[in-house]
Fold:
Amino acid sequence: MNGEVEVQTPVEQRPSEQKPVAPKPTLGKAVVREVVSWLWVILAFLFITGTIVQARVIPSGSMERTLLVGDHLLMSRFGYDAEVPMTQFHLRLWRDPHRQQIVVFRAPLPESPDYIKRLIGLPGDELEIREGIVYINGKKLEESYRAAPPNPVDNYGPVTVPSNEYFMMGDNRDDSYDSRYWGFVPRANIIGTPVLVYMSIDAPGEAWDPGHIRDRMLTYASIFIHPSIVRWRRIFKMF
Structure:
């Protein structure tokens, strides 16, 4: 009232009401936080590859013309098989494959890589091959996917597919090491089925064999120099 103006300190500047500044995390805590973050990423990746989807590459011509050497596939294992990555532990799930489905499986052979073939015989089927033609329970099996006409010297059986087992054959019958030679595939060996070609590269099969990492990396690098080795029309092919 005497012409004096009262000056007040702004609320946010009052020392007694300022929020304390959180101390910066120590180097050790920052490292632990980063490790935990990456651990969750790794666990999620292992869960996905162990139960849902995996990437595979075709190293041989046993499934031509359906699958070509150098086809890179996404394989669905959802409902078929679950595994703990980098171990031998596998768990059979609820889905069963059907006739003429393309299947990825562990071959009943010692130290053998996973195979990919077409399922021809179901449990309980009477199967016979006469002059290259497959008969299931006495009826001719129509196979429009085959790479070549039936070979008249290809004869097998008759055999009855055991319970809980399957008979597998390649589409390229004259160049396929399959159930005609090593027998039936137990249901527990079924891993999954391909759903999509995400990349296809026209390169020698040796580059895609297990253990040939250097050859594979050189093949990928050569795409930048020779993009024509990519089979562009096969990308996103569905099954």
About this structure: The two ends are 89 Å apart (CA to CA). DSSP finds three helices and 14 strands in the chain. Residues 31 and 37 are 10 Å apart (CA to CA). Residues 46-238 form a domain with the Umud Fragment, subunit A fold (CATH 2.10.109.10).
